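Question (not urgent): is this output format expected?
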Amino acid sequence: MKLIMILALILALMALVTAQECNLPCNRRIEYLCGRTVRNGSEIECTFRNPCAMDRHGCEKREVWRKTSTGRCTRDSDACGR
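Got this back:
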């Protein structure tokens, strides 16, 4: 039981550190862009408000996102909200 509590505490601390690292200050300026990544072998395309928002999302999800085009994506993937 103690081991489970210790592991839970370690995971909580790691999540806190990651959240602080990813808390990038972004401006509110809208410069929509379409970004792409590969998750579990599937390509995902999502629209982001600006490059900073894409970088923050990538940091939080621990994924590498690349800009594919300026403006909104033709179709956002179903996995964008996750």
